[in-house]
Each structure stands twice: as structure tokens, then as C-alpha cells.
User: Which sequence fits this backbone?
């Protein structure tokens, strides 16, 4: 196989398995603040039990996130040395900020969060919970910033080293950090993390309600999870609309690939779903005439820039980009339905009367995960053939010293490692869920009515 394809496949594999965990830990960290805040306010020991249970789940996702994130960083140097050399000035300053503002805060408070119960005061422990949550979110800020800079580079100048190698030197750290798409990408990613964490809470709570176990725990957790999910799903629609207009402005080829727009014409349609016939440059599917024009220009007549505005050698793989993008959009629709069902049951106070709805909420944990994955696929695949948009092409980014056979060998090893780690994660998470919260007060009428094996 081609070395470039293997390098890209390995990076995609690393990203896929790694990105299962950080969104969960970031989303859960927000919920932990709410859970522990309610405990401090009410002094209700049930809230304490809820907090301790979700801290254990958070610790599992955090540990797997670190374990899968290290190979991803090393891959920058081993598989993408020319890209690393080109963006080193940008990447170094951003990762330094992440280490200073994120990892230091998070690592310093994590021990108190995990082991500080009954060792420090309640307020100190709550402060540690907040610090860990802020640290987790800051990590997302800096990593997302690197990706957004690659989409819309700013605050740089291209220079040459003594041997003639070009690199992007930062001329304005603030312009680089707040590049045109930075805040929009950041809001989109953080909201995706909140949805991942909140839907895990919803799923576990629905599972307990189906099994008629830990009812009070499940209902309270469900209400917090639904509150976060409702806010996130609504705001994500606003964020997506804003990000789409930015992509249409700064990355028109990518946007055209997202929507299957081959020809620049008035009343540009939006496709609900479809199949791309790239040979004949058309999409077969259900479309809404003028809707894409309205989305981008707030006018149904103004044409959206199509792929005909760019040479074909600068087109990404249209079929793949179109499909993964539409899967991402579909996942938002499935999450919206899940939130609507949850709010309906909340209003009716009939949590255990609608088993089909509860089963839907159990499987809904997969929706934000699939949406987050396909979102990253969309943004990375849609940028092709560039790694840094209009500055560095992918064919000029990977390590020339790493052969195709070497890349294939390490790819196989990564598959083995990541599958093993994912299986371990599923086993441990399943064990924690089936074991249930062990910190509920003995006198609570909602404690598990039977003892687990």
C-alpha cells in the first residue's frame, strides 16, 4: 500500500480510539460540579453517593484518555515529521500553554478529587473538582486551537531554515490563538463533549430504571444529564450554523464537499441524504431547493460556491466527506429525539412507564460518540489534500524515512493495543455500572433492593 495512505490510516485510528475518552471526561467533569454542588447545598447523602459514583467513572475515562493520547502525540514526530517541522512554532507554543494552564491545574487537583474524601474539607474538595473540570476543558481549548489554525491559518509568516526548509513562524500569538475559526470550532467541540458526558449519564440512568434498581439515584442523575444534554443540543445547533458559515467563507471547497455542491448556481439545495455520483458530478437524494443558500447567505437565491470553482486536484474524496458529514448531522437529530423523550417523561413523571423510550435512551450513549467521530473525520478529510490549508499538502507532510512496510507494521500493533484497551474500558465500565453506586446511605429507601454478586 501507499505510505501516505498508511500514515493517514494510522493517524485516523489513533484519533478514533483516543477521542472516545476525552469528550466523556470533559462532559462528566461538568456534571461532577453540579452533583457535588447539589450535595454541598442540600447536605443530602444521596447526592454524595451520586458524586462518588460518577467520579469513579470519570477516573476511568481520564486514565484511558491519557493512555491513548500519548501515542497520538508521538505520532506527530514519527509519522508526520515534515508537518511537525512546518508547524513546530505553532504547535510548540500551543502545547506549552496546554501544559501550563491545563495539565498543571488538572494534575494538581486530580489526587484531591479521587482520594480527598474525608481527608480535606468539603469546600476544598469541591474546589478541586472545579479545578479538574477547568483543566479538562482547557486541554480541549488548546488541542482544538491547533486544528482550527490548520483550517484558517493566521498570525504567522512562512520562513526558511538554513537548509532551505520552510516553516510557519508565529508573528502574533494572539492572532494565531484566535484565528478566524478558533472560537467557533472550540464551542462546537466543547458542546460535543458535554453531550458525550451527559448522554452517558442518561444511558446509565435509563438502564437502572429499566432494571428497577437505584431508582432515586437514576432519576436524580437523569435530571442532571437531561439538563446538560438539552442545553448542549440546542446550543450545538447555533454553533453548527455559525461554524458552517465560517467554513463556507474560509474553506469553500470543504463546504462544497460537505453538501455535494458541484456547480455554483442559484437556489443551491441542501441534501437531507443522498449518494454522490462523482463521475457525473451530481448527487442523487432528497434535497430542499434554496435551503443551503439560505443557510450560508440568509437568502434562498444567492449561489453557494461549488467545487467547479477549484481544480479537481484540490478536491477531497467527495463521497466519503459527504457521507460522514451527513452521519454527523443525523446524530444530532437522534440526540434531539432522545432529549425530547427524556423531557416528556420528566414532565409526566413517568420514568418507568415507557420502556421503549428508556431503551432508546440506553443506546443514545452512542449518538454523541458517532457524531464526534464523524465531525473530526469531516473536518480532517474535508481539508484534503491539505494538512495546513493552502500552505502544506498532505503528500508533503508525512515522514519520508518511514517506509510503507514500517507504517503497516506499527499500524497492526496499534490496532492490537487499541482494541485491547477499548475492550478493557468496556469491561471495567460494565463492571462499575452493574456493581452500581455503593455510597448511598443505608437508610435510603432507594438503595438497591438486592445484593449484587
Assistant:
Amino acid at each position: 500500500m501507499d505510505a501516505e495512505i498508511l500514515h493517514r490510516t494510522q493517524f485516523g485510528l489513533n484519533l478514533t480510539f483516543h477521542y472516545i475518552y476525552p469528550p466523556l471526561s470533559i462532559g462528566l467533569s461538568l456534571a461532577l460540579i453540579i452533583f457535588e454542588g447539589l450535595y454541598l447545598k442540600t447536605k443530602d447523602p444521596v447526592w454524595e453517593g451520586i458524586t462518588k459514583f460518577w467520579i469513579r467513572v470519570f477516573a476511568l475515562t481520564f486514565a484511558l484518555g491519557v493512555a491513548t493520547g500519548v501515542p497520538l502525540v508521538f505520532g506527530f514526530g514519527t509519522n508526520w515529521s515534515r508537518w511537525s517541522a512546518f508547524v513546530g512554532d505553532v504547535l510548540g507554543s500551543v502545547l506549552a500553554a496546554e501544559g501550563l494552564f491545563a495539565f498543571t491545574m488538572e494534575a494538581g487537583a486530580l489526587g484531591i478529587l479521587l482520594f480527598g474524601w474525608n481527608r480535606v474539607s468539603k469546600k476544598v474538595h469541591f474546589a478541586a473538582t472545579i479545578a479538574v473540570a477547568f483543566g479538562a476543558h482547557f486541554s480541549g481549548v488548546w488541542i482544538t486551537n491547533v486544528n482550527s489554525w490548520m483550517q484558517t491559518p493566521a498570525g504567522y509568516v512562512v520562513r526558511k531554515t538554513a537548509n532551505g526548509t520552510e516553516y510557519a513562524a508565529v508573528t502574533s500569538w494572539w492572532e494565531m490563538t484566535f484565528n478566524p475559526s478558533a472560537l467557533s470550532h472550540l464551542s462546537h467541540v466543547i458542546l460535543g463533549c458535554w453531550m458525550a458526558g451527559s448522554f452517558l449519564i442518561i444511558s446509565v440512568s435509563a438502564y437502572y430504571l429499566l432494571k428497577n434498581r437505584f431508582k432515586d439515584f437514576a432519576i436524580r442523575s437523569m435530571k442532571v444529564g437531561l439538563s446538560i444534554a438539552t442545553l448542549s443540543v440546542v446550543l450545538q445547533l447555533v454553533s453548527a450554523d455559525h461554524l458552517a458559515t465560517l467554513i463556507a467563507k474560509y474553506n469553500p471547497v470543504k463546504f462544497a464537499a460537505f453538501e455535494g455542491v458541484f456547480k455554483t448556481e442559484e437556489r443551491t439545495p441542501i441534501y437531507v441524504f443522498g449518494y454522490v455520483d462523482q463521475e457525473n458530478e451530481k448527487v442523487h437524494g432528497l434535497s430542499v431547493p434554496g435551503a443551503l443558500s439560505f443557510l450560508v447567505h440568509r437568502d434562498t437565491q444567492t449561489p453557494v460556491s461549488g467545487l467547479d470553482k477549484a481544480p479537481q486536484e484540490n478536491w477531497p474524496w467527495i463521497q466519503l466527506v459527504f457521507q460522514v458529514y451527513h452521519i454527523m448531522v443525523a446524530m444530532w437529530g437522534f440526540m434531539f429525539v432522545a432529549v425530547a423523550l427524556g423531557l416528556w417523561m420528566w414532565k409526566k413523571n413517568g420514568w418507568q412507564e415507557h420502556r421503549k423510550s428508556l431503551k432508546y435512551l440506553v443506546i443514545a450513549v452512542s449518538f454523541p460518540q458517532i457524531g464526534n467521530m464523524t465531525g473530526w473525520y469531516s473536518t480532517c478529510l474535508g481539508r484534503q489534500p491539505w494538512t495546513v490549508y493552502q500552505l502544506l499538502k498532505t503528500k508533503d507532510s508525512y515522514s519520508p524515512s518511514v517506509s510503507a512496510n514500517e507504517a503497516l507494521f506499527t499500524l497492526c500493533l496499534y490496532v492490537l493495543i487499541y482494541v485491547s484497551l477499548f475492550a478493557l474500558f468496556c469491561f471495567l465500565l460494565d463492571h462499575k455500572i452493574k456493581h452500581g453506586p455503593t455510597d448511598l446511605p443505608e437508610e435510603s429507601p432507594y438503595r438497591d433492593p438486592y445484593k449484587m454478586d
User: Anything to note?
Assistant: The chain is about 70% helix and 5% strand.
